[in-house]
Design brief:
152 residues; 16% strand; alpha+beta; protease; 4-stranded mixed sheet; Adenoviral Proteinase, Chain
């Protein structure tokens, strides 16, 4: 999803109902959802379709039940819109605020933390990085953007 998804979703499903018309999200392994909280702080929500889990990763450890519930409701409404054989219900997807995650100690690295949450989770790696890794991650991200491909 892009950075405009959550603000649009929070205004109602109707605002995002056409966003997935060319892709069946229920065939995806994971859906990454960047969250810009109050236009000042970046977090990452990850919908893991194989585990029926929606997790919210915040480097300041601030829960966001509003976004978690909106994402779960989006999945339910999307399952009805796609006329799945068995549409989802509230009990089908668990939501969690991930608590055992690396924490930032400044006010400028939340975007890098969010990107790294996404990268580590999608690569099935433990979240073993910390604030001290941020300068290296910034250089890595710059290199990947410049080269047009992700490092392995």
């Amino acid at each position: 999803m892009n950075t405009f998804f959550v603000p649009s979703l929070l205004k109602g499903y109707k605002n995002v109902s056409r966003w997935t018309r060319h892709v069946d999200i229920f065939k995806e392994d994971m859906i990454l959802v960047p969250v810009h909280v109050d236009n000042v702080h970046w977090c990452m929500a990850i919908i893991d379709m194989s585990k029926n889990m929606i997790s919210y990763y915040d480097s300041f450890n601030i829960p966001n039940p509003t976004v978690l519930n909106a994402l779960r409701n989006f999945l339910i409404k999307e399952s009805h819109a796609r006329k799945l054989e068995t549409p989802l219900t509230l009990k089908d997807f668990q939501v969690q605020h991930a608590t055992n995650v690396p924490r930032q100690t400044n006010t400028s690295d939340c975007g890098v933390f969010s990107c790294m949450f996404a990268e580590y989770i999608t690569r099935n790696k433990s979240l073993t990085f910390s604030q001290k890794d941020m300068p290296r991650f910034r250089k890595q991200m710059k290199r990947e953007i410049t080269n047009g491909r992700l490092d392995q």
